[in-house]
Amino acid sequence: MKILHTSDWHLGRALDGRKRYDEYEAFLNWLAELIENQDIDVLLVAGDVFDNSTPSNRSQALYYRFLCRVAASPRRHVVVTAGNHDSPSFLDAPRELLKFLNIHVVGCASESAADEVMVIKRPDGEPELIVCAVPYLRDRDIRTAEAGETVEDKERKIVEGIRAHYRLVYDAAREKQALLNRAVPIVAMGHLYTEGGKTVDGDGVRELYIGSLFHVGRDVFPEGIGYLALGHLHIPQCVGKSDFIRYSGSPLAIGFGEAAQKKSVVLVEFSDDGGPIVADIPVPCFQELRTLRGDWPTLARDLDELKGRGSEAWLEILYEGEEAAGDLQHRLDETIAGTGIEILRVRNNRMVERAMSGNGGEETLDDLKVTDVFERCLDERNVSPERRPALLSAYREIIVSLEEQDPRAE
């Protein structure tokens, strides 16, 4: 039994206005070939298939073309769960049709826990795996709001709700397992932020629930799960030093902050001898991203190095020289003329410092996070430190609620 775990594709995501469909197509072609060459039995996609709840036609075409190619083998199964970026109703809409291709989709938490349990069978009807396909659990799925709640009350209810949901789904899986005539492993999926999880600036990981980056402990997951395939965090990593609870990470660098990461998918192999064997499989880089920083001589040297090896990298430039370099953009354009290099973002830190000190230049909303804007509003209105935590919590709750709206549901 070979399982491949991936997540956080974010199909349709752009980088500083640049569309990345060619990269996504290259990745999905590579993934399909890997599945065929490794003779994978089950593919698990743990959320954030798309970057937003209204994916473009081209993003949808990439998704469905890939599913059709992978489903060409009658013995292969695919399990897809929704992440916080996905529209649950959009993913769920074709689920009854996709079942005929051995593609199982769970867009949102079900009223019956058994609906999130998939018994994967071979073509001869013999069961070989049970999957607890738990999608991203929205606040309303796991918590009942009450007047007068404190932030601590809300966070406690969220943790209890996640724990209770996983217990119900796992118990339903155990019931199905007990009805089988042989030992069949149970694996689970999830899309959430676990305690100790690693992130990087600019990775596009949205805040979940009402905390700044609210996370849950490993203890919310029932003992007995053979492997837990997680999504949401973009850095490939184990949870609590366990090889059997993992984030596969995003297969592409979502932003320049991830450019130096080694991306991967996870191969999980079960045998009759005991626990699974787990290994990372590196994902090739389909578009080089680089951040160059320093004064002008340093930037010029690094650009010459890229030019010398014929690079077609997309660049972020962070100028840190002592001089203001008001003609920085012109120098950069002149240096890369006639090459395949493209500069997508330029930040002149010297000019920014002047802007912040009121000596000229501008600050844009692109330089700020959503919570930064709100905090500046609080500063402008001289809101006392005592009132800020409750206001920030309420504001974050509103933002999460807006992000969880499903425009495809009506």
Structure description:
It is a single chain. The strands form three sheets. This protein has a six-stranded mixed sheet with strand order 4-3-2-1-11-12. Strands 5-6-7-8-10-9 form a six-stranded mixed sheet, covered by helices on one side. The mean pLDDT is 87. The chain has 410 residues and is α/β, with parallel strands linked by helices. α7 runs parallel beside α8 (328-336) and α10 (370-380) packs antiparallel against α11 (388-404). It has helices at 21-37, 57-70, 88-92, 95-98, 139-142, 151-178, 296-308, 328-336, 349-356, 370-380, 388-404, and strands spanning 2-6, 42-46, 77-81, 103-106, 117-121, 127-133, 186-191, 227-231, 237-239, 242-247, 264-271, 274-282, 289-294, 314-319, 342-348. The longest helix has 28 residues, at 151-178.
SSE blueprint:
Layout: E1 2-6, H1 21-37, E2 42-46, H2 57-70, E3 77-81, H3 88-92, H4 95-98, E4 103-106, E5 117-121, E6 127-133, H5 139-142, H6 151-178, E7 186-191, E8 227-231, E9 237-239, E10 242-247, E11 264-271, E12 274-282, E13 289-294, H7 296-308, E14 314-319, H8 328-336, E15 342-348, H9 349-356, H10 370-380, H11 388-404
Parallel strand pairs: 1-2, 2-3, 3-4, 6-7, 7-8, 8-10, 13-14, 14-15
Antiparallel strand pairs: 1-11, 5-6, 9-10, 11-12
Helix pairs in contact: 1-2, 7-8, 10-11
